[in-house]
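It is worth pausing here to work through a concrete case rather than discussing structure prediction in the abstract. The textbook approach is simple: state the sequence, then state the predicted structure, then interpret. We follow exactly that order.
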Amino acid sequence: MTSPASSPASAGASTPSKPVELPAHPRLSRLYRLQYEPVQTAWVLLYPEGMVKLSDSSAEILRRCNGQLSADEMSAELETLFSVQGIGPQVRDLLQEGVRRGWIV
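Step two, the predicted structure:
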């Protein structure tokens, strides 16, 4: 049996990931901490083995993963904050990737 990292499905960057079910109210896993790093001039997601430097939009989504908001509520809040419409699919994509990577529970 091959590990997920070496499977053909994960080898190509253009292969779309299967959608995963999102929690009703996504929150960050206790293994991860979101914080702003002045040296990086960016938000980062810290975990015991390292960190992930986040884009501004990713950080804004993850900052709302507090276990109180649904994906739709996060999208609505961000659409109001940035005066944009229709970002729900992008918010869900990031949340699904976060669930796949174990960042979000």
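Step three, interpretation. The first strand starts at residue 33 and ends at 37. Residues 88-101 form the longest helix (14 residues).
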